[in-house]
Each structure stands twice: as structure tokens, then as C-alpha cells.
Amino acid sequence: MVNRRAALWLLSAGAAAPGAALANAPREVMWDDLIPPGVPYSEIIGEGDIDVVNDFWAPIYDANATKLNETLNGALIRMPGYIIPFDFSAQGVTEFMLVPYVGACIHVPPPPANQLVMCRAKKPWPADGLWDPVWVTGSMRTELQSTVLGETGYALVADKMEVYEW
């Protein structure tokens, strides 16, 4: 037979459990969320230089391109994107840049720093899935870094990755 104290304890533990689960749920972040509130995307990219002969446009970014959304610093997030691999082996990709669209940084000028995320995966992502969009879940930091492909504004340790389903 359950006494009154034990019954109250069981009820309070059950009521607290859903709240604890929600507290650990990642915040879903989209690419617009990486731009700080009040900074319109149109003010990040200037006119740039157009090379008509080589059919190439090099955007000129202003100071807004490196402004980061500090509310994301230390946050557990889940966001979609595409993988540009940096470090991969037979097991898969472990270090990569997460970009907002296919081919960013490779075939076109890189997006601004506040639209690029440098990622390190705890578990390698299969190399045969590099062209597929992915969801990446992990802890995000605001951190400007320079890479060979462009300057990134965020860093993420990926605890979980999965295929993005439409």
C-alpha cells in the first residue's frame, strides 16, 4: 500500500519530468536567426565587384556581416544546412562548414560570416551523403574564424546529425 507521502512524491516527480525533458530540447534555428535582431540582411552585402570576363561577383560585406546573434552563444540548437567537408576519412566527415545552400563557398563567393557555421561532428557523417541537406544538433558558440573558404561566425559541436526531410 502506498502512503500519502509516497503518492505525493510520485505525482510531483511525474509532473517535473516533462519540464526537464523540454529544458534539454534543442532550439530550432534557421539561417535568418543567425543574423542579430535589427540587422536586415540587405544591409550586410554591398554592391561588390563584378568581373564580367570571368563571370564572377565578389561581394563586399560591411560590418554587419560579422555581427553575430549572441543569444545563440552556448545554446543547444538544431539547424538545417549543407555540408562543405574539411576533414574526412573512410568513416566519414568529422569537420565541416555548414552552409545555407548547395555549393556555397565552392562555386560562388562565400556568404557573410554570420551565415556560416564551422562544425565538428562527434560521430562521422557518411561521405556518400554530402550533397543531401542535414539537420545538425549540438552546442553553438559565437566565434569568428578564418578558413580557406571564408570567414565563419559560429562554431558548433554536432552531437547528432540526420538527413533533412522535406
How is the secondary structure organized here?
Elements: H1 4-23, E1 27-28, E2 49-51, E3 56-58, E4 76-89, E5 92-99, E6 117-125, E7 134-146, E8 151-163
CA radius of gyration is: 20 Å
Task: Give the low-confidence spans.
Answer: 5-14, 17-21
Strand order of the largest sheet: 4-5-6-8-7
Question: What composes the largest sheet?
Answer: 5 strands, mixed, barrel
Q: How large is the count of helical segments?
A: 1
Brief overview:
This protein has one helix at residues 4-23, and strands at residues 27-28, 49-51, 56-58, 76-89, 92-99, 117-125, 134-146, 151-163.
Tell me what you see in this structure.
- The structure is a single chain.
- By secondary structure, the chain is mainly beta.
- The protein is 12% helix and 39% strand.
- It has a five-stranded mixed barrel.
- Strand 4 and strand 5 form a beta hairpin.
- The protein is globular and about 45 Å long.
- The N and C termini lie far apart (51 Å).
Essential attributes:
1 helix, mainly beta, 166 residues, two-stranded antiparallel ribbon
